[in-house]
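Incident log, structure service

09:12 report received: a user says their structure output differs between two submissions of the same chain.
09:20 pulled the input from the user's history:
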Amino acid sequence: MADLLPGFESAAEPRPRNWHNYDDYRLVHERQMDALVQRGVIVAENVEFREQYSSITQELERVRVIGRITLSSGALLDVDKWLGVRDHNGRPEVIADVYAYHAWVVEPDGTELPIFRYDNSDDDDLASLHRHRYYTDGTQRERTEAVPHDRMPYLSEVIEEADRLGYIR
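09:34 re-ran on a clean worker, output below:
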């Protein structure tokens, strides 16, 4: 039987779920991605912020953060995260409410082997946030692991986890 790939060690301390100024959120995202590129973890990425506006008020309603990240280990990470939006003193604030991070590698013969997947996209409820783990042969462990939202790894940590596990493959 194949070995189970290691799991992520969740944050020791809970991380409160907070609203963030949208411009600041994007700036922090860009800085984290740039730092991972500089360290050589990220080889290429096309993550983008797709904004959805109300057809009536023309106000920002939702933001989809979506794209693919290629890592130095050869692992790939597909990102598909939705941000809720609210107005705060005339400026948009965002909070993540739907997650789907899927890491995988492509073997030399073209076989795609999953590494892990975090998501709550089955029912868009943060209480259902979970992690799928896989064995080294690509088969999925039967049960998923619940991930409390306040212990969900940041995208930068998910990227580093995918890169580290990509080398194990």
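09:41 both user submissions now match this output. Likely a transient worker issue. Closing.
09:42 reviewer note: The radius of gyration is 17 Å. The mean pLDDT is 88.
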